[in-house]
UniProtKB/TrEMBL annotation:
Segments traversing the membrane: 84-103
Domain Protein FecR C-terminal, first and last residues per copy: 307-375
Keyword Transmembrane helix assigned: yes
Residue ranges of domain FecR protein in the record: 168-262
Pfam families named in the record: FecR (PF04773), FecR_C (PF16344)
Lineage: superkingdom: Bacteria
InterPro entries: FecR, FecR_C, Ferrdict_sens_TM
Organism name: Sphingobacterium yanglingense
Source lineage: Bacteria, Pseudomonadati, Bacteroidota, Sphingobacteriia, Sphingobacteriales
GO molecular function ontology, one term from the record: sigma factor antagonist activity
Keywords: Membrane, Transmembrane, Transmembrane helix
Protein name, entry field: FecR family protein
Amino acid sequence: MSDIQEIYSRFLARQCTAEEVELLMAHFEDKENAAAIQELIQAEIDRTHDVEIEQKDIAAAHQNWVALNTRIHQQGRIRKLQRYWVSVVAGLLLIALGATFYYKVNVPSDGAAIVAANKIVPGTNRATVTLADGSIVDLSDGHTGVVVSDNLTYEDGSAISGATTSATLTTPRGGQYRITLADGTKVWLNAASSLQYPARFDGDTREVTLRGEAYFEVAHNGRQRFIVNSGEQRTVVKGTKFNISAYPDDHQIATTLLEGSVAIQLSQGTKDDELLLKPDQEAVVKDGKMSKRSVDANEAMAWSQGKFMFTDAPLPVIMRQIARWYDVDVTYLQPVDDVTFTGSISRFDNIQDVLRKLALTDRIKFETQERRIMVKRE
């Protein structure tokens, strides 16, 4: 083992002297050592890649870095590092604390190696509104929702746009948003979803079109039925609370009722073909057929309250939700359709914590590369 390898090992064990830390940083600063540095760091990643990072570890790493910096300054031996090498040392301190997250080592054209955290973070309040004239407004992530009235405003009253006849609210993967429609109906839009709505509800119906998933709290109006069009399904209500999940890649539409009553119809069917739902019932429309079953409605609504909640849910169903919310891609190295999970997980957990909990089935293993999660059997 070379001297640098020995110092590096002691660094990870937090046994380095200030002089050794300075020597290690000087070695990192020399671009001719890029390949050797990559090998050192990659070996440590391979050894500890399944350890999750926690916020307290980051704080501890920062304190450790400040302490080392102070010690070196006191001995008058500090040399200025280029900005990216500060990231290298900070990353190594995190590893030394046992708070490893996935690092990717890039070697730019000048040969310098840059170590960066592979950050997969939970979704936030992000959306766009497409107005009737085709213009697109990017909504601020500093707000949680918008209100439709004579104008489109944020919930605090600040203006977004002037009058428009209709609009479409769209959330990206990794986004969610809330909207209050002109009649007072509140809609929570999940990730990778869109809601097309009019600025005013005229006539004897209030109609919107949903793609993706949304939770509705419909304002009661006995003179105007509220109708949600979603793919091959129409949901008819007068005033109720329900969730519709109509993602194309789910190949079905699930409507879950929390309060009130709704009627589920096929878009090409007749009123005689409708299904009536009571609270804690769910209708599923698939391949032109309708069915219903009793469920815990809170499970379907959990996403709007910041949670993933599953009961014997197949792993591919779960991973589709995670992919939308964390904006990642999922690759299956072996079939896992028979793997199920029951439990509740915060939607704001670190992705590694989410995967660790899912892996408690002892039947699967997860690996991440960039923004891709690979799933395989143990």
